[in-house]
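2024-03-11 09:14:02 INFO worker-7 job=invfold-0412 stage=load source=structure_tokens
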């Protein structure tokens, strides 16, 4: 792969030079660093150290707003290196957690089984870090597919431009180091390049730190053969992946014994963005940290695998040092390997540039029994998380500034964050269709969102313009709009779940009004206030009383909806603070809002909680809500009791008032994970009389992804009603 890269770079036509060096100082420092890079570091003959590696995958609404850790793995190993490039890695321990199992009630039953499956499992049995200095290319954990050209490699100045941005002094034990930050940017597209910053020791030219974003035509695929069609296919694959996936890295070095710049921290990040419908960002991150250095001890690396088993183009594996290798039927070898690995441990090795490597893995029980100093944390250490956040923010800002032909990120794309933004159905608009686009200027973390919608029953055009800045500290939305709003903070009338229920059963469980105006919304991405929403708005509220029906529901009942109640029509100033979060099996939310037309003031506060549990192997759920309103009464600020969010069996808004409480208890009747009968009982009121009590049952499909409910009120009595419910209201 490296040969392919260098051949493509050096044989092909060189791009036009566009001011390689910003000034004479930059050029001078660059060639000092180039000379140091070419000499490498001959004063380090050997070293031993410890490497700790953490790999995790998280999911959230953006790369700066981590909402849930899906999976985390840690390993610790001893490493021994000897010049020119012999490496021995001896794994001591490994552990894994899958926190997403605790977040989803339907998966908790399998949590213990999965924990045992991962117990003592070693995921990294090939070198996953750079043990010493880089050569003329950059690659971590096998990525990118074609190694990127090092900015200090011979001939690299034909493909990069450089500028010294600033300098700093580092006071280290025994020495003060003056560093300069060198900006590196490509001049043109190539098979594999980098963009970012390189920090250099001004005196020696040593690399102190590198923060890099990978770019190029062959990052995620490379031609199998030297034909034009293969090259085009590889480029097309990379282009498709780069539209939604970012590859970045950081390499840090530490000064050992005031003399040797040694690896200290190495980060590789792969961030996938799914902007359509899911609006999800999934960062996968690997961070390796080195410690306990012993340099130039005179110890050579001792290998277990005999030289005779090593192949030039592959790796070899032995068990318990007996020289047994992978020979025989493929299925038989696989079964035998798995069993012997667990009981005996194994070693894997191969040759590589200027030497050989070997990874030694002890028996699985020994790996699991490793004495860790603490529990495996779901979230990274706060100090380490802060350093990583700084790296991610800097590289994300760089990606936004670079030309789109380098990053393959589209400046215009569809902006449908939810299914309901495309199509929805309710009693005030009927069927409505929407469209939206996102414009991404070359301004870090900033985008412009344009949306429009039209209901087929009310023929009322709606639209919005939003400037969004989603940075490390938080997300700021500045919006102007004419849009439909819901009266209560926890209903999901504008979601796809309520749309389907309304379409098939003629039950619309929300009250609506038209809002026209502007707002500022801030959401914290980190710290104690993470996920807290603060909104300030000035908008006009208007009643929407167009009544539509469902022709589909008419086929087996009545497709007529209850009327949508009016609101006070006036210009209002408003503010709201909300927080919704899940911790293990408990989901909860709190909020407060204020609405005023300058003559009247209405304040609201609310809280809700949802707790999943298991009894005798069967899953259950207990949910409660408590809310109050103080001040002047306005129809849009009263609380509603009745419907799926409070008391099932009653029409939404059966009772309204200043106060609200409700409790809901669901219990699965079998242990089935696919189709489960469910029974439930609800109670709730507005504190003005006997509470409403509803009971019912239904079928839960795929652990509640879809629910068919039949419910009825028992006090007072109501006719049974059927609802089609979806867990995700988007």
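2024-03-11 09:14:09 INFO worker-7 stage=emit residues=730
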């Amino acid at each position: 792969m490296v040969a392919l890269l260098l051949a493509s770079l050096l044989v092909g036509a060189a791009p036009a030079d566009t001011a390689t060096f910003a000034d004479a100082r930059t050029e001078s420092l660059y060639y000092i660093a180039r000379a140091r890079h070419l000499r490498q570091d001959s004063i380090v003959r050997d070293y031993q150290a410890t490497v700790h590696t953490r790999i995790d995958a998280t999911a959230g609404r953006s790369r700066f707003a981590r909402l849930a850790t899906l999976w985390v793995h840690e390993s610790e190993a001893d490493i021994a290196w000897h010049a020119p490039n012999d490496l021995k890695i001896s794994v001591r321990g490994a552990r894994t957690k899958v926190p997403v199992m605790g977040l989803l009630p339907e998966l908790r039953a399998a949590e213990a089984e999965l924990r045992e499956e991962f117990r003592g499992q070693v995921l990294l049995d090939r070198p996953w870090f750079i043990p010493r200095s880089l050569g003329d290319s950059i690659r971590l954990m096998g990525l990118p597919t074609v190694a990127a050209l090092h900015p200090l490699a011979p001939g690299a100045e034909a493909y990069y431009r450089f500028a010294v941005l600033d300098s700093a002094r580092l006071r280290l034990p025994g020495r003060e180091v003056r560093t300069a930050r060198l900006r590196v940017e490509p001049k043109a597209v190539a098979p594999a390049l980098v963009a970012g910053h390189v920090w250099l020791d001004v005196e020696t030219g040593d690399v102190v730190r590198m923060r890099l974003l990978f770019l190029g035509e062959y990052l995620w695929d490379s031609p199998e053969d030297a034909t034009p069609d293969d090259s085009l296919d590889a480029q097309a694959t990379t282009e498709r992946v780069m539209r939604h996936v970012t590859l970045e890295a950081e390499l840090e070095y530490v000064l050992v014994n005031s003399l040797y710049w040694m690896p200290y921290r190495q980060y590789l990040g792969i961030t996938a963005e799914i902007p359509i419908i899911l609006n999800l960002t999934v960062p996968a991150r690997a961070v390796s940290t080195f410690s306990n250095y012993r340099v130039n001890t005179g110890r050579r690396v001792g290998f277990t695998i005999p030289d005779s088993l090593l192949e030039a183009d592959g790796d070899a594996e032995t068990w318990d040092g007996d020289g047994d290798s992978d020979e025989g039927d493929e299925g038989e070898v696989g079964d035998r390997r798995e069993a012997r690995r667990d009981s005996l441990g194994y070693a894997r090795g191969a040759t590589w540039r200027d030497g050989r490597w070997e990874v030694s893995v002890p028996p699985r029980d020994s790996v699991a029994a490793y004495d860790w100093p603490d529990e495996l944390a779901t979230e990274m250490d706060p100090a380490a998380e802060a350093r990583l956040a700084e790296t991610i923010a800097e590289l994300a800002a760089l990606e936004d500034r670079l030309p789109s032909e380098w990053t393959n990120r589209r400046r215009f794309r569809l902006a449908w964050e939810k299914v309901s933004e495309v199509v929805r159905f309710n009693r005030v608009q009927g069927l409505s269709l929407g469209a939206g686009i996102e414009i991404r200027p070359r301004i870090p973390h900033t985008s412009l969102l344009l949306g429009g919608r039209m209901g087929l029953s009310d023929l009322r055009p709606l639209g919005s313009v939003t400037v969004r800045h989603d940075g490390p500290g938080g997300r700021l939305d500045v919006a102007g709009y004419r849009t439909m709003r819901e009266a209560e903070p926890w209903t999901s009338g504008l979601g796809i779940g309520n749309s389907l229920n309304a379409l098939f059963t003629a039950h619309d469980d929300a009250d609506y009004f038209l809002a026209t105006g502007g707002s500022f919304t801030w959401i914290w991405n980190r710290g104690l206030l993470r996920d807290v929403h603060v909104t300030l708005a000035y908008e006009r509220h208007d009643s929407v009383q167009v009544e539509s029906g469902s022709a589909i529901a008419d086929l087996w009942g009545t497709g007529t909806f209850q009327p949508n109640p009016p609101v006070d029509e006036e210009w209002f100033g408003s503010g709201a603070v909300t927080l919704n979060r899940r911790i293990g099996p408990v989901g909860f939310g709190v909020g407060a809002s204020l609405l005023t037309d300058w003559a009247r003031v209405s304040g609201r506060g609310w809280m809700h909680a949802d707790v999943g549990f298991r009894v005798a192997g069967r899953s259950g759920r207990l949910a409660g809500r408590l809310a109050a309103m103080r001040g002047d009464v306005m129809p849009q600020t009263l609380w509603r009791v009745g419907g799926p969010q409070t008391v099932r069996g009653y029409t939404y808004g059966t009772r309204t008032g200043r106060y609200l409480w409700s409790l809901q208890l669901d219990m699965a009747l079998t242990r089935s994970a696919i189709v489960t009968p469910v029974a439930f009982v609800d109670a709730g009121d507005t504190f003005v009389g006997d509470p409403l009590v509803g009971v019912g049952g239904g079928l839960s499909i795929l652990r509640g992804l879809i629910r068919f409910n039949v419910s009825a009120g028992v006090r007072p009595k109501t006719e049974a009603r059927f609802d089609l419910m979806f867990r995700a209201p988007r």
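2024-03-11 09:14:09 INFO worker-7 stage=report msg="The first helix runs from residue 2 to 11."
2024-03-11 09:14:10 INFO worker-7 job finished
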